[in-house]
Write a structure and sequence with these properties.
- By secondary structure, the chain is an alpha+beta fold.
- The protein has helices at about 1-45, 120-130, 165-240, 250-275, 290-305, 325-340, 375, 390-395, 400-410, 435-440, and strands at about 75-80, 80-85, 100-105, 110-115, 135-140, 145-155, 155-165, 285-290, 310-315, 320-325, 350-355, 360-365, 415-420, 425-430.
- It has a seven-stranded antiparallel β-sheet with strand order 2-1-4-3-7-6-5, sandwiched between helices.
- Helix 6 (about 325-340) runs antiparallel to helix 9.
């Protein structure tokens, strides 16, 4: 399932990026193409201007307007016959490779102004291709080069200006190939990067899904046990229906005990569900954390001494935090109850609450077997127990520390544990203190 999810993510990501790159490259290409085309059109228009004049030559006087002035070129060709250079004949711009062909109305070549040394066949071919396209301007390929042309009326004929655009065509072609290569390399890199981050992104989802499955399995197992006990005791009661209630009291007490356990379990599960998914915000107020801790200790003091444990506590007075007093009371109860369950015979429980910088730090320590290092980070997970059989004997479900962590995180605090195997275990709770200005307000 997660592999399919990852592949869908990769495909969607590649499609989106491919479309984005295509639009970006197409925009760049169109802008570049338009600029190149504008430059070509501007240059063609320049070399086709009337200031490029044709000198009086035999056979052209009837074609040339009276206003035309003498000009000069390097070579002149009239009716295919080379004429000697004529002074004052202006040639096309020497910075470009270009030439001009003058024709009559039947498109017969009459005169050529060129700065190139080309065969007459090439001039004729260029003229024929331009005429055959039936457009005033355009492009074509001739031999190994690319040419742009512009046709303008010239007296009783036409003036066709040609410009070599091979370099411009090569620039645009190289730009397309560059885009294709870059796009191919980018897609490979993006695929690898997307695959890496997709795996990273799916890992928490997969972990949460696995935890959810484990949560459902553990909850079902925990509910199954008391239900089985209740069902068994009910069968016993039904099999002795003639007996009085007093004689059946033992079975009824078993049913009541298991019902209470189920009630506590379901309440804990509901609370954790509310913490995860409920949008209802807990009402917070400023309260005295020191007094809350003392009240919990006084409540549990008798139980501690009943188990023959030594108790030592040191509470710094006047520590105030902003939060829910009942929830923090529940956290301290969970930690003390947890300490009592796992304290060894004749061991001790130590509780301290002190100010550390801007935080109130609660430390609950008990002697005992301790927690192996590989379990330290997992003990706050739901239904997680280092010794499941021992925990069930002690009545634990593995939800207490998960609830404590959820409450502390809601209060923007931090809870963690440190342990020395076969010696002691300490739980630390850090909660932000209320500033003096907030207290006065």
């Amino acid at each position: 399932m997660f592999k399919k999810l990852r592949n869908r993510f990769l495909i969607l990501n590649l499609v989106i990026i491919s479309v984005t790159m295509l639009l970006a490259f197409a925009s760049i290409y169109l802008v570049t193409y338009r600029n190149v085309q504008n430059d070509i059109d501007m240059y063609l228009a320049r070399i086709s201007e009337p200031n490029h004049k044709i000198d009086k030559l035999p056979g052209l006087s009837q074609l040339r307007p009276d206003s035309m002035q003498p000009s000069s070129i390097d070579n002149t060709k009239t009716n295919g016959v080379k004429e000697p250079p004529i002074e004052n004949m202006e040639s096309p711009d020497d910075r470009s490779i270009s030439f001009t062909v003058i024709t009559d109305q039947q498109w017969n070549k009459i005169y050529i102004a060129s700065n190139l040394d080309m065969d007459d066949d090439l001039y004729e071919s260029a003229k024929n291709i331009a005429v055959s396209q039936n457009r005033n301007t355009g492009r074509f390929k001739l031999d190994d080069g690319y040419w742009a042309y512009l046709i303008k009326p010239f007296s009783n004929g036409y003036r066709i200006s040609f410009l070599d655009v091979t370099d411009q065509h090569a620039i645009l072609t190289n730009l397309v190939y560059t885009f294709l290569v870059v796009a191919f390399i980018m897609l490979i890199l993006i695929y690898l990067i997307s695959r890496f981050f997709a795996n990273k992104s799916i890992m928490p989802v997969k972990a949460a899904f696995d935890k959810q499955k484990q949560f459902i399995a553990d909850a079902s197992h925990e509910l199954k046990t008391p239900l089985a006990v209740i069902n068994t005791n009910v069968d016993v009661l039904l099999s002795n229906s003639e007996d009085t209630i007093s004689k059946q009291a033992k079975w009824l007490h078993y049913i009541k005990s298991e019902s209470d356990r189920m009630t506590k379990l379901t309440n804990d599960l509901l609370y954790l569900t509310q913490v995860d998914y409920s949008d209802v915000k807990t009402i917070y107020s400023i309260f005295n954390l020191s007094k809350t801790a003392e009240n919990v200790i006084l409540t549990m003091e008798a139980v501690i001494f009943e188990h023959n444990f030594s108790l030592h506590y040191e509470i710094e007075p006047g520590l105030k935090i902003r939060g829910n007093a009942e929830e923090i009371h529940e956290v301290i109860m969970i930690l003390l109850d947890n300490a009592l369950k796992y304290t060894n015979a004749n061991g001790f429980v130590d509780i301290s609450l002190k100010r550390r910088h801007n935080d109130a730090v609660l430390i609950v320590t008990n002697t005992g077997e301790g927690i192996p290092e590989e379990h330290i980070e997992k003990i706050f997970d739901r239904f997680y127990r280092t010794d499941k059989s021992r925990s069930r004997k002690l009545g634990g479900y593995g939800l207490g520390l998960a609830i404590a962590r959820a409450i502390i995180e809601q209060h923007r605090g931090r809870i963690y544990a440190k342990s020395t195997v076969h010696e002691k275990t300490s739980f630390y709770v850090e909660l932000p203190l209320v500033s003096d200005a907030a207290r006065e307000a």
